[in-house]
Amino acid sequence: MSLTIDRERLLAEIETLASFSDGEAPAVTRIVFTPADLKARAWMTARCQEAGLTVREDAVGNTFARWNGSDSNPRVVGTGSHIDAIPNAGKYDGIVGVLGGLEAIRALQQSGFHPQHSIELLIFTSEEPTRFGIGCLGSRMLSGSLSADAARKLTDNEGATLDDVRHRAGFAGELADVNLPSGYYKAFVELHIEQGPLLERQHIPLGIVTKIAAPASLRVVIEGSGGHAGGVLMPDRHDALCAAAELILAIESAARTSGEIDTVATVGICDVFPSAVNSIPSRVRLSVDIRDTDLQRRDLVMRALQTACDSVSKKREVSIHSELLNADAPADCSPEVVEALSQSCRKHKLNFLPMVSRAYHDSLFISRVAPAAMLFIPCRNGYSHRPDEYASPEDIVRGTLVLSETLAALSA
Ligand code: GLV
Ligand code: MN
Ligand code: MN
Question: Containing H/E element for 105?
Answer without folding.
Answer: helix 95-111
